[in-house]
Every structure is written in C-alpha cells, then in structure tokens.
From TrEMBL:
Catalysed reactions, semicolon-separated: UDP-alpha-D-glucose + 2 NAD(+) + H2O = UDP-alpha-D-glucuronate + 2 NADH + 3 H(+)
Pfam families: UDPG_MGDP_dh, UDPG_MGDP_dh_C, UDPG_MGDP_dh_N
Family: Belongs to the UDP-glucose/GDP-mannose dehydrogenase family.
Pathway annotation from the record: Nucleotide-sugar biosynthesis; UDP-alpha-D-glucuronate biosynthesis; UDP-alpha-D-glucuronate from UDP-alpha-D-glucose: step 1/1
EC number: 1.1.1.22
Top-level taxonomic group: Bacteria
Domain UDP-glucose/GDP-mannose dehydrogenase C-terminal positions: 317-418
InterPro entries, alphabetized: 6-PGluconate_DH-like_C_sf, NAD(P)-bd_dom_sf, UDP-Glc/GDP-Man, UDP-Glc/GDP-Man_DH_C, UDP-Glc/GDP-Man_DH_C_sf, UDP-Glc/GDP-Man_DH_dimer, UDP-Glc/GDP-Man_DH_N, UDPglc_DH_bac
Keywords assigned by UniProt, alphabetized: NAD, Oxidoreductase
Protein name per the record: UDP-glucose 6-dehydrogenase
Species whose genome carries this gene: Albidovulum litorale
Matching PANTHER family: UDP-GLUCOSE 6-DEHYDROGENASE TUAD
Amino acid sequence: MKIAMIGTGYVGLVSGVCLSDFGHEVTCVDKDPRKVEMLLRGDVPIYEPGLDVLMARNVAAGRLTFTGDLNAAVDGADAVFIAVGTPTRRGDGHADLTYVMAAAEEIGRALTGYAVIVTKSTVPVGTNAAVRAVIEKTSPEAEFDVASNPEFLREGAAIDDFMRPDRVVVGVTSDRAKKVMGEIYRPLFLRDFPILYTDLETAEMIKYAANAFLATKITFINEIARLCEKVGADVKQVSKGMGLDNRIGNKFLHAGPGYGGSCFPKDTSALARIGQEHAAPMQIVETVIKVNDEIKRRMIEKVMDLCDGSVNGKTVAVLGVTFKPNTDDMRDAPSLTIVPALVGNGARVRVVDPQGRREGESLLPGVTWMEDAYAAAKGADVVVILTEWNEFRALDLARLGGTMKTARMADLRNIYSPKDAEAAGFEAYSGVGR
Ligand code: UDX
C-alpha cells in the first residue's frame, strides 16, 4: 500500500514509521521545513525508545520518506492519514479542529484517484463526517472514503503498542474502504490481534470513552488513596486486592500525583464539552477533571507538611518532572502545578530529570537543574519523587539521606515504602495513600 501521513508529531511519526515497517510505502508530510530537514537527516524530533532505530531501518529500505510537499505525497496514495494536532481550544475546552480541517481541504485538492482519508487524530464525534463534507466541497469530482482509526499509543511504549495492540479500531462506511484498511493492518490481523470495524461515530466515541474511563480509574484510586491516609489503610495493597478481581483488572490503579500528559487532560475536557453540547452531561468525567486538579494541589500540601508547614527558605530536590517516565513530554505534567507552587512559596527548588530538561527549562523558571539525584539531595531539606524513572527506583537511600540537611521524602509515586525510608535513616517519609 502507498500511504501518506500528514503530520509528523508524536502520533504521526510513530504511526508512519511503524506502517513502513509493515512493508508499506510511507511518505510523512509536515508543514515545518525544519522538522522535515531534521527527519531527512535521520534525526528524531521526539524521545521515544526504539523509534530512531526503526526509522533508520525503514528509510534505508527505501519504504519511508519525509517531505513538505503534500500534493506529491497524496498523489497515487491508497490511504492518506490525518495525524495533525487537536489541542484544547482556549476558553471553551473544545478540541481545536483548525489543523484537521485545513489538512482535509488540502488533501481534497491534491487527490488524483480513489483514496481512503483516515483520521488518526483524536477528534470529537462527527468530525469524520465533517472531513468528508469538506473534501466533497473542495473537490466534488474526487473519489474517496473517510475512515476513523483512533490511536491508543502510550508514550514511552508507543512502538510496542502499535505492533502489539490490544485492538485496532476502524470506523468505515464502505466495503472498499474496509478492504484498504484491512490490507494496511494485515500484518496485525495475521497475528490475531483483534480489528474492530464500526461506523465512524462509534470509532470516534471509543477513543474518548476509553481514555475517559482510564482517567476515571486513576482518579478513583487517587481518591481512595486519600481516604486510606485518613483511616490508616495501605492503598498499594488495596489496589492489589481490587485488581485481582478480573472484572476490575490491576492496570491503572497506581495512586500518584494525578494524571497528566497529552491525552487524558485534553480528551476528558473535550468529552465533557461534547456531552454539554448534546445535552447529555458527562457528570462522572466532569468530576474526574475537578478531582484530578485537586489531587495535584494536595501534593503541594504534602510537601509543605513534611517541611513543618512551610517551604519558605527550604531546599527541595525534585526527582522527575516529565508527566511519566520514558518520555521528554511535559504536557500537563503534575510538575507544572507543583514546582511553581513550591517556588512561589519561597522554596529553592533543584530539579533532576533524565529527559525533561530540554522542554522543562522554559516551563519551570527559577529552578536549578542538577545532574543526578544525589547531587540534588545534597544539603536539601526534602526530596520529592514526582516521576517514577527507573534511575530513581533503586537509589541508595542511606547515601541519599546521609547528605541531606534533614532526611525527609515525599514519594508521590510510592516507589519506596515507609519501611525502606526508616531503614535508610530517613526521619520522615510521606507516600500517597499509605
Ligand atoms: C494515554 C493512553 O494510555 C493511550 O492509550 C492514549 O491513546 C494516549 O493517552 P499516555 O498519555 O502516553 O497514554 O500515558 P499513560 O501511560 O496512559 O499515563 C497517563 C497518565 O496517567 C500519566 O500522568 C501517568 O503517570 C498517570 N497514571 C497512569 C497514574 O497516575 N496511575 C496509573 O495507574 C496509570
């Protein structure tokens, strides 16, 4: 199959590279000439484990290329994927569809023969129908179908998620489009990964419902964690006990500083908007959004409490600022709420993150970047674990605490335990929900 991928952001680049690895001929298109140049040089603009190697392999095999020329990429393509950004629109929380619609119009003008226009970007219900209408208007003669093919890629594990998905969801309206999509995902179908064909609206809804459900699961356990603290229970064991019930499952039950990232905050807020617009308010999702914000703020109080009520003049070592490990992504990271609050309350904040510095430097003004956890903790009043990077999971706690002014720890990812901290000589330890 010949495929054009419009947009080389996170989703577009990972999808384009992986589809070329399936043996398809993929051209990735981006409007930003610097990005195209960078990709042509073989540099990957984002940090995603394994992506550089996979990209190089498929470029070398001649199946993967990059261009700024949308017309050339769309010419003769069997499928054109739209993977441009859908940020949250300022003011109303709705997904901003400007880029999707602009791409649709351009694709419409560039079509030379039958192609399936596939939306990968997460878009509100009804957008695929709108994409079809735009293309029909732009080029009434064009022969095409639209398809909705939402992505379920976790940052840091995106290649594995693409190559070994729990399911592939494809919304289509014609057999011809279904055949093209079936051909594209044939390597997965052959290995028995489930492919679910639905109508357009259902496919669009599955993405929002899945992400909102996962955000709800996390928020639920975060709320239980708070209650555990009050009643003296241990949320880690509560999660385990709940998760062993197959109907619940053990995933996404880790209590922490609240969910962040490029998907959950954006998609929950867009779903809430869609509900309001259709007079079917998403009350649970609206509450989840509110509770998640409160959870982030509660983490600030936790650190304050550890510092006898005030961080003013105290040195705080923050380990991890990306929204989760194995990514350099800072979008909606809990650190963006927590770190500025600490700085604002007069703390001297030192920060360590294996990948977060490039983006974090401009987003977190007034902090000092350190090389590693030990350097950050030296002479500090408290250490705060915000992201569970592997390199923070096996620290020599006695060594870490030994050089601190006062050995106190806020472990907001529960990667250590009160016992670990006590054995290492920490005078105070505060996890989440235990
Ligand atoms: C998510 C979805 O998993 C993916 O399917 C979707 O398409 C895009 O959004 P991602 O945002 O990359 O992926 O990260 P994910 O691993 O899902 O974590 C999201 C947030 O939830 C992170 O802030 C993480 O720290 C938090 N989280 C996750 C918890 O606090 N507890 C958990 O148990 C799981």
